[in-house]
UniProtKB/TrEMBL annotation:
Ranges of compositional bias, category Low complexity: 11-32
Domain of life: Eukaryota
Residue ranges of every copy of the C2H2-type domain listed in the record: 165-186
Ranges for region Disordered: 1-32, 47-67
Protein name: C2H2-type domain-containing protein
Species name: Pleurotus eryngii (Boletus of the steppes)
Entry's transmembrane regions: none
Biased composition (Polar residues): 52-67
Alphabetical list of PROSITE patterns matching this protein: ZINC_FINGER_C2H2_1
InterPro entries, sorted: OrsD (IPR022698), Znf_C2H2_type (IPR013087)
Length: 485
């Protein structure tokens, strides 16, 4: 709320809080880099200024402001310098113009007349300027019935009042005579639903001849003067937020980080990110069991560690020319170096173990509660079962390492030969692309920032090189039974 706005009614009958999922289209904002053009009928010496800036800005929060129903900490309302002069704000989701003095929405053609009823004196030029801003923001210009898709908290910027709500349909009103008249239309169905209506809290957007009310939940009571924002959050907001396992989804793809937009991770995993339980099951695919869990898959970390040590020994024995080619060819002086310290080797082995763990779990319905499936061929599934068999039978370490190599090599070698000319959608036919998408997911359903994904991608690049190298040596020696030779 800006300091020069008309005071808001803070009574319980007009308490705006955050809005539920909107039905109308999101607010369309102009590109901030392009200057706003003046209307043709403005004087020639008129030029845009900061007062004519029509880019909505977040509302400032006063240091002494308490979180309450009248002053929520996070507002769905925004304003511009021009609109704030008249106490007008725009709802971000519904694209409606709200008067904060009376807490009701108005269409642009009625805004000027309404402002005059509040004592504002608008010249023709001021009115044209105001209407131009509203037109540029593409706000709702017809008094069409608007209401949230589902029952939820009151829409911010609208007055909340007690009313009557039909239990059979979504009809709501503020007069008992009107609800009695309405339920007469359901007289054949009323006996099936019991009481045909109930009392509740209702809102309406516009103030035409016939108002269209909709039901909302009761607004939270304002905190006492001595209560803090933290106390209000923990006692009123936090319980409601933690009661559901649903995860809020972005309304527009622009709300997603740029890296997520470019990679398409959110689209690929969309059906698995709507519920916290689904996210937990999805992350279980890339979580290697601990040694004390009793799972045979807990051995994957040690097997992957031995696999990297084996690759290091084979690389060290190789000639300088081969190691140059493994690094990048042609290069004259730089050669490929295997991992040296134990901590780095263990970190790289963890990614390799997670890859094998995810593939094995995905083919077993008893382990895969998420339902997510990798694009595996019949041979890939046979290789995964082969490694799992070696783990269950307690085969010697060399056989387990070979089984791990046979499983992961097709995926890593395919990923190493990806061409830039491939179709964007074909990436999800590659297991490693799917695995990277799983690695990027966080517990809250969001995605890791680029800084957190740089190291896993670098590790996968290293694994691609050593796996292809080891397989090439085995083919050269015409033997995959003993990778150590």
């Amino acid at each position: 709320m800006t300091l020069d706005q008309p005071p808001m009614n803070t009574s319980s009958a007009s308490s705006p809080v955050s809005s539920p999922t909107p039905k109308a289209a999101p607010l369309c904002l102009p590109a901030p880099a392009q200057p706003l053009a003046s209307p043709a009928h403005f004087s020639a010496d008129y030029s845009p200024s900061l007062e004519f800036d029509n880019t909505p800005q977040p509302l400032p929060t006063l240091p002494s402001q308490h979180v309450s129903a009248a002053n929520p900490a996070i507002s769905d309302l925004t304003t511009t310098s021009t609109l704030s002069e008249y106490g007008l704000q725009i709802h971000r989701h519904y694209s409606t113009v709200h008067c904060l003095a009376c807490l009701i929405a108005w269409i642009p053609s009625k805004v000027a007349g309404h402002l005059r009823s509040h004592g504002f004196t608008l010249s023709n030029k001021s009115e044209e300027k105001l209407l131009h801003v509203l037109k540029t923001l593409q706000v709702v210009d017809k008094e069409t019935p608007l209401h949230p898709k589902e029952l939820g908290p009151p829409v911010e910027g609208l007055a909340t009042t007690h009313g009557f709500c039909c239990t059979i349909c979504n009809y709501a009103c503020v007069k008992a005579s009107m609800i009695e008249k309405h339920i007469g239309k359901h007289k054949e169905m009323a006996s099936q639903y019991g009481i045909a209506y109930r009392t509740g809290h209702v809102q309406t957007f516009f103030s035409p001849t016939q108002r269209h009310y909709f039901e909302v939940t009761a607004p939270p009571p304002p905190p006492s003067n001595n209560s803090s924002m933290l106390e209000f959050y923990t006692t009123n907001l936090l319980p409601a937020l933690t009661a559901t396992t649903k995860v809020l989804q972005p309304i527009h793809h622009h709300e997603l980080p740029l890296m997520v937009q470019m990679t398409g991770w959110h689209d690929h995993l969309a059906t698995h990110l709507v519920d916290r339980n689904d996210i937990k099951n999805l992350l279980d695919l890339v979580t290697v069991p601990t040694r004390g869990s009793g799972s045979r898959l807990a051995m994957l970390s040690n097997i992957a560690y031995e696999y990297l040590h084996l690759c290091g020994r084979r690389i060290t024995k190789s000639s300088f020319e081969i190691r140059k080619m493994l690094q990048k060819y042609p290069m004259e002086t730089v050669h490929f170096k295997p991992l040296e310290d134990e901590e780095t080797t263990q970190r790289y082995a963890t990614i390799l173990a997670k890859l094998a763990n995810a593939i094995i779990k995905s083919i077993d319905s008893s382990r895969n509660k998420s339902g997510y499936q990798f694009p595996l061929s019949t041979a890939d599934i046979a290789n995964a079962n082969g490694l799992l068999k070696h783990l269950k039978e307690g085969a010697n370490k060399n056989e387990q390492v070979i089984a791990l190599h046979i499983l992961v090599h097709p995926f890593l070698s395919h990923f190493a030969t990806v061409m830039d000319s491939e179709e964007p959608g074909s990436k999800w036919n590659r297991v490693i692309e799917c695995f990277i998408a799983l690695l990027s997911v966080q517990e809250n359903g969001s995605f890791k920032p680029p800084s957190a994904m740089t190291q896993p991608l670098a590790i996968l690049k290293y694994l691609c090189r050593i796996t292809c190298f080891l397989h090439a040596l085995a083919q050269l020696e015409d033997s995959t039974k003993d990778l150590e030779s």
